[in-house]
Amino acid sequence: MTEKNNLSFENTEIAFRHSSNSDLKRAYWLFKVINVNFLVKIGPPITNFAINIGLPIKGLIKATIFKHFCGGETIAECDKTIKNLYNGGVGTILDYSIEGEDDEHVFDNTRDEIIRTIERAAVDKSVPITVFKVTGVARFSLLEKLDEKAQLSILEQEEWEKVQSRVLAICTAAHAKGIPVMIDAEESWIQKTIDMLALDMMHLYNTEKAIVYNTYQLYRHDKLQSLKNDHEVASTGGFILGAKLVRGAYMEKERKRAEEKGYQSPIQPDKQSSDRDYDLSLDYCTDHVAQIAFVAGTHNEESCRKLAELLDKKNIDHNNPHVYFSQLLGMSDNLSFNLANAKYNVAKYVPYGPIKAVLPYLFRRAQENTAIAGQMSRELGLITKEVKRRKLSK
């Protein structure tokens, strides 16, 4: 029987207990800057240009936006962040944020680094889940060709076999150590291949415990049905479905490509439809919690509250191993730490990697934040509230 509690996301003392006064000050000014759309638009090209011509701005990036949204450049540099989160009851998902490369040597190195995150998780209970992107170990245009069911050349066929071998090596390591590994979702025109890989790995390794998770982007109008279809495949195949539920991260790109190529956009017609399907997916997964292990990746307060209420309503323990809440490092601490305080399973994505390689991730965070109506004012309001609380409590 689950314990019931009055969950509040307004407690800033709990939300920012892990943050020093200087951390709060940095976050305040960072979100202020991100809130200015003009700066977010001109920032990426200027930053890339400055780094490419050798201007010494890496130190500035590392001390500001990188420090806020990333754990460090290596796993070892993430130690302080991992410990800090765990002190607040929040786990870490080490996310090696290299993407968009075309080099086989880089793909092999990325595979090895992801396996190192699994090895770290195996000896550290504060790292409960790991993650990777298939484009971290495969060439985007190869995946695109596979999705189109185009004929591969002999060299491309060999390349595809190497991709499958890397994915297998990662999932085999995860299974051997008993550590869950999530496969992130990507653009719709390479997603069918990723989905196939994920289900193949689940069939191999999810027979006794949820090891491999696929990601469902519910801002796509077809993904709630995909979740249900995959659950049916898992039931028939005798394995547990691993599902990470997110709204999505490529909306503008998806709509633009659909318009240019003249096909129906896979994106929902409006935000209400995304919210509806996201909450229906939570309902579906909690209805089948013995057969579906899921991670609710969301910064949406209502969805977090909805899931917490569903767990209570269906008598599912707050710390059921098949249910996790997840947010990104540097965002929505009021959700992560208040959920953890109420004894729910919570883990933050902690991206890491060389600064230059992680820049696309950082720019995406900034651009996403400005695109989310009210997100920045919400973050700023909570930070301001906590600063005032600390002054009054002196």
Descriptive report:
Strands 1-2-3-4-5-6-7-8 form an eight-stranded parallel β-barrel, surrounded by eight helices. The two termini are 41 Å apart. The protein has helices at residues 12-15, 21-34, 37-52, 58-63, 65-69, 79-87, 104-122, 140-147, 154-177, 188-205, 223-237, 251-261, 271-287, 301-313, 333-341, 355-371, 375-393; strands at residues 91-96, 129-132, 181-183, 212-217, 241-246, 292-297, 323-328, 346-352. The protein has one domain: TIM Barrel (Alpha-Beta Barrel), CATH 3.20.20. 57% of the residues lie in helices and 11% in strands. It has 394 residues and is an alpha/beta fold. Strand 1, helix 7 and strand 2 (129-132) form a beta-alpha-beta unit. Helix 7 packs parallel to helix 9.
Fraction in helix? 55-70%
What is the count of helical runs? 17
- The CATH C-level name is Alpha Beta
- Straight-line distance between termini: 41 Å
How much is the radius of gyration in Å? 21 Å
Structural class call reads alpha/beta
Major β-sheet, in short?
8 strands, parallel, barrel
CATH architecture: Alpha-Beta Barrel
